[in-house]
Amino acid sequence: MFLQDEYAGEILRSPLALDASLSTPLSPRKHPRQQRSRATCEAILEAAARILETGGAGSLTTNLVAERAGVSIGSLYQYFPNKEAILAGLIRNMRREMLADFRAAAKLASGEELKEAVAILTRASIAHHLRRPTLAEELERAEAGLPLDQETQVLKAELLGIVSAALAERGVVPQPEKKAFDLISLSQGLVGRAIRLGERDLDDLHRRLCAAVIGYLNGADDV
C-alpha cells in the first residue's frame, strides 16, 4: 500500500543518506517574533543562499554566513545552532515556495481535462526551478544528506497530495499516490538537469516534459 507520507519522505532522497547527521539539530533555537528578529533571520538565510549559489555547500560556514549577513556570530547562533540548521531553513523555504506554486497551479487547473491539467502543473515545476536554479540544485543535494524535519515532511506530503488528487480526480487510478511520486521525481530530474545544463528553449522543455508525463500515465498500468 502506497501512502502519501511514505512517498513524501523519499522524493529526491538518496537511500544511503539517512545515516548522515541523524543527531544534528535542524530546528531553529528560537523563532523570531519581532520585525527586527525576523529581518535578522532573513538576512542570515539570504546570505547563506548566496554563498551556496557562488561557492556551493563546501564553502558554507557559520562564520562566513554571519559576516555576509552583517550580524555577529552570537546573533546567528541565537537562531541557528549550526550550518545544517541554516540549510534546513533554506530547504523549508524552498519547499514552501514550491508548494505555493503547485497550489496556485492546481487551482488554475480545476475543471480542466488531464492533458491541460498536466500542462499547467508542469509549468509550475519549470517556474520553480527557474526561480533560483543553482540554489535549488544545491539545496536538493543538501537535503539528500540531512534527515527530514517534521515541517519539511508535511510540505512534501502536501505536494504529493496535490498531484495525486489531480490524477485521481481525472480518473488516473489505481495508486495515484505512487504515480504522483514517480511524476514529481521525473519532473524534478528532467527539469532540474535541463536548466542546470543551460536549457534556454523553455517552450520546448515544457513540451518534452508534458510528453514524458502523458507517456508515463498512458503506459503506467501496462508494466
In helices, the fraction of residues equals 55-70%
What proportion strand?
A: under 5%
Shape: elongated
Our Rg estimate from Cα atoms comes to: 19 Å
Q: CATH homologous superfamily of the largest domain - what is it? A: Tetracycline Repressor, domain 2
CATH class of the largest domain: Mainly Alpha
The CATH topology of the largest domain comes to Tetracycline Repressor, domain 2
Unreliable segments of 5+ consecutive residues: 1-22
Amino-to-carboxy terminus distance: 18 Å
Number of domains: 2
The overall average pLDDT, rounded, is: 86
The CATH architecture designation of the largest domain is Orthogonal Bundle
Q: Which structural class matches the secondary elements?
A: mainly alpha
- One letter per element, helices H and strands E, the order comes to HHHHHHHHHH
Number of DSSP-assigned strands: 0
Taking the sheet with the most strands, its summary is: none
Q: With helices defined by DSSP (H or I, 4 residues minimum), what is the helix count?
A: 10
